[in-house]
Amino acid sequence: MFRSRLLLLVSAVLAALAGCTTSAPTSGTQTLPLEGTYWKLASLRNQMVLPAGTPREPHILFEATDQRFAGFGGCNSLFGSYAREGAQLRLGPVAATRMACASGMELEKAFATALHVAASWRIEGDRLLLLDQGKGVVAEFVSGSQLYACDGGKNLLVHYEGTDPRQQQAWLSYEGRNYRLQVKPVAAGARYVADPGRAAGTRLEWWPQGQAGTLREGQSGKPDSSDDLRTLASCVRKYYPWRTI
User: Fold this and answer.
1) Is pTM beyond 0.85 here?
2) Could you write out the three-class secondary structure of 139-201?
3) Which of 76, 127, 147, 208 could bond to 96 as cystine, CB 3.0-4.6 Å?
């Protein structure tokens, strides 16, 4: 009798432990947002996208404030509107600038076609997948964005494009809007400036320092050394559980 009760007790404890293991909470797991994240094109229809030897890389950004997207296809800038509801996604007609390039045109055509047929989306880790009506993956993107936690519970995402610090540019997303930044080398690293900024007549300045950064705002056209800049947000870099970004 005692042995039977002991076996039952051990079985119950093991079952409870197994239940705890399978239902362990995943609090702290971060999920990259669709909007505001810089999505670099990685593959089309499971075919890897190779570097084209151009200063810019094919990418796309979604902006929440006006439901617009913008990116670079390999030769021209791409842009348009989109609508989403849950996992469903519909991108409006893909417009583009009208440059002709020696390379990148075929890639750009395939990229635009993938955006046109996209019907849904999902994010897996640091990757965005666009799927067609049959749930086939038409385009895969990888994020190079760095996520910062800022004052007031707000998030800031930034992606640095290019390896030459003297020509480096950046994309920054804050409060649902995307900004293209130009580098301004300084003695202590680099500052990045968007002019215009959040409104006409203003400019934004992003100053990363180690694992922190400061977002400031000032008047457009003022000297970079002017004291008119006011701090919008002080930010600290976040980390994702699957890798450090």
Assistant:
1) no
2) EEEEECCEEEEEHHHCEEEEEEECCCCCCCEEEEEECCEEEEEEEEEECCEEEEEECCCCCCC
3) 76
